[in-house]
Amino acid sequence: MDRLTEMEAFATVVDQGGFTDAAKKMGISKSAVSKHVSSLEARLGARLLNRTTRRVSPTEIGLAYYDRARRVLNDAGEADALVTSMQSAPSGILRISVATDFGVNHLSPVLGRFLQEYPDITVNMVLNNRYVELISEGFDMAIRIGELEDSSLRARKLTETAQRMIAAPSYFEKYGRPTKIDDLNEHKLLHYSSQASGNVWKLTAPSGEKRQIRTAGWLSVNDGQSLLNAAIAGLGIAYLPSFLYHEAMKQGLVEDAIPDLPTEMQGIYAVYPPGRFTQPKVRAFIDFLVEAFQNKGPLNW
After folding, report:
1. Is the pTM for the entire model greater than 0.90?
2. Residue 82 banded pLDDT, cuts 50, 70, 90
3. CATH H-level superfamily of 92-151+280-293
């Protein structure tokens, strides 16, 4: 007989407390359930159930076997669900959390094509500048930029972006231009308060030495566009991803603060809850983004 069927019959008898209710649950006859359990006991060479006229209960060995059998049956059920899920068309509401700057500049422009390709998916994109708790806050996935925090979440890299220190020409005229990392201590710094690293700028010296500069800037903003606006207004030096400042730099509104420093690259990731399989709608969107950004290349204009 099939081992899984024998396990299922035995586990259902334990769950239901008897053969009659187990038969109803499984949709087979009581004699068939009894036959499956007897075959299992014969194969194992052990009595798994205590049978009386009033009740059926697992023996000590049966209880230990039940725990393992139930795990096996649950795993088998998940495996079946995985196959069904992977074969089904992506559909449903996809709730995404993304930083406002990146959502406006790079996610919104490609959403139209995604929705046309997957008409059964409805996207609910939430723009914010904080790290959301995906599971407790009901998000299917999030887009995160920079070093990922230690987490049980799964992640897939989409692309990367350059990050540099920039400021307006008017700022350099008034305060001078720094020539090395240590000079930053004498300058007005604009802090992006939503960065996971806190008030720390991670920089690389021309020698290749990795430096961490704690920035006690005189302005902190939790929105990258507002921080760029402050830099354009000559308020100080900001440390921003290139997808925010590249147009302003092309127009001469901002300049590289220390041109000799190597460009820092930050990964851009799709993160989503852990699990043995990924929902089709999430998998479809991540695959779409990977292709979209690979065609565009790194965001390091």
Report:
1. no
2. low
3. Periplasmic binding protein-like II (3.40.190.10)
